[in-house]
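Sequence design from tokenized structure. All designs in this work follow the same two-part layout: the structure record, then the generated sequence. An example of the structure record is given first.
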């Protein structure tokens, strides 16, 4: 398992031209960014840009600070995305105006496995102890299904999704 620090900004669109609630993941080269826009208040949550961090923020377990250069790169990439009408419905068509205001920046520690998949199951050396780790930055999406999987293991029930049992099995590295 490798720990790394991820960084995120929140921004408010300065125009009401961002109509849709979207989730977007963009992988360019060796890095990825992710975005979600809340409909009720036009807040955009945008994260990623680890390529701009010192050492890509690998093996950092302190999330009490942020790197300014990553915040600037997130703002630059968000501005680039806001100029792409295929992602956002831009009513004004004015691509020279600032379309958002950054309200917050924060960081959090994530953990990745060597094969990019979570590790879920009973720890072989510690019967009765279970793990669900290594979400590779996708914890909000994967944690719920992995949690159900662990609960089914504890309750000795058949797996509702046997594919998870095979792909995420804690013993696959033994």
């Amino acid at each position: 398992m490798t720990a790394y620090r991820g960084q995120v900004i929140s921004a408010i669109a300065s125009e009401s031209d961002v109509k849709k609630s979207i989730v977007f993941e963009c992988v360019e080269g060796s890095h990825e960014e992710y975005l979600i826009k809340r409909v009720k208040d036009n807040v955009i949550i945008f994260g990623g840009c680890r390529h701009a961090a010192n050492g890509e923020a690998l093996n950092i377990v302190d999330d009490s600070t942020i790197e300014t250069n990553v915040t600037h790169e997130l703002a630059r990439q968000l501005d680039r995305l806001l100029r792409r009408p295929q992602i956002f419905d831009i009513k004004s068509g004015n691509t020279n105006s600032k379309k958002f205001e950054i309200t917050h920046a924060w960081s959090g520690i994530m953990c990745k496995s060597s094969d990019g998949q979570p590790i879920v199951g009973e720890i072989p050396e510690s019967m009765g102890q279970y793990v669900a780790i290594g979400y590779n930055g996708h914890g909000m999406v994967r944690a719920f299904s992995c949690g159900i999987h662990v609960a089914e293991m504890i309750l000795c029930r058949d797996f509702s999704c046997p594919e998870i049992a095979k792909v995420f099995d804690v013993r696959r590295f033994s």
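The mean pLDDT is 80. We note this feature because it recurs in several other targets discussed in the main text.
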